[in-house]
Structure formats: structure tokens, C-alpha cells
Amino acid sequence: MRGAVGLASLPDHDLPEIAFAGRSNVGKSSLINALTGRKTLARSSNTPGRTQELNFFDLGGRLVLVDMPGYGFASAPKDKVEKWTRLVRGFLKGRPNLRRAVLLIDARHGLKDNDRDVMKMLDKAAVVYQVVLTKADKLKAGELDEVVARTQAEIATHAAAYPILIATSSEKGAGIPELRAELTTLATPA
Fold first, then answer.
1. Distance separating alpha carbons of residues 190 and 134, to the nearest angstrom
2. Which of 23, 43, 53, 98 has the fewest CB atoms below 10 angstroms from its CB?
3. What is the CATH class of 2-184?
4. Average pLDDT for the chain
């Protein structure tokens, strides 16, 4: 649909939006590609900080997915990272057709302080967000169960957190059908 480098250049439409937020290199673009079944819709990279603007993808006139720059570490100058962080926060706080933010957490690392900061900001802005664990295939089953339990307990303490936690693997396809079904409920009816 379009990329936006600032709040003034956001697309004007009335479709419901779902924004994908998370630390740099957590797998936002890869998850969007897995959800849509298109390998190259959102550009993914092993280099943190590759997504440098808000990228909007119109899914058949029913739903818009928004791939956001990551927060935290990125292979970019500090002033650019701060600019992306302001853009992400401004978008999440003030977008009227934003139906849900999907907050991606790398299952190997669990919630970090900068994730908690974003959760608090979303709680304060009353933006519903759903935590999704990524890279779940990189953990053994017992380890994944522990991360899920810890994360579920923590999100239960947040007012705006959607209660359903989904563990995914873009590489193996785990959790993708469940997340796709969940997000489809937010789309404009066909």
C-alpha cells in the first residue's frame, strides 16, 4: 500500500489496522509473510533495523497490516533509531482505526524491559495488544512451556493486553493458522 516515514505521511483510509511491533530482529516481517503466505511481501533480513518506516499492506480491502520498525538494538545511527521509536509510539498512541497491536516477543529471550515499556505505553493509551511469541521452534518443548507460562502470567497484569497468547514459528508454520484466524475476526466482513 505504502511506506510512511512520519506521522504526516500516514495513509488515509477506513480499514481496520493491525500493527506488528517488537524489538529489532524479532521477526515482524517474517511473521507478516507467513500470515499472508507470501515470502517477499514484507522485506525481512537478518540485519536488525532493516525496516525503517511504517509499511502498510492492504489485504483485499478488508484489513491492513502495518510492519513497524523495531525498537531497541538496530544497526543504524542512534538518532535514526530514536526517530523510528518516536514514530512507532506516535502511531500506536493515536491511530483511530488501529484495532490491535501485535507485540512480538522472541521466545528465546522472553519479555525484556523495553517490551514492558511498550506494554505500559499501550495500557496507558488503551490500545489493545496481543503478545505473540516468535521463533518458538528454537526452544525445546519444556523450555517453551516455561516461557509461555511466565509471559502469560505477566500479560495478565496488564489492562490492555488481549488474554490469548500464541507461540509461533514463521519458519515451521507453528501457530500461524491460529494467529491468522484470530486476526481475521478483526477484518471488515467480506
1. 29
2. 43
3. alpha beta
4. 88
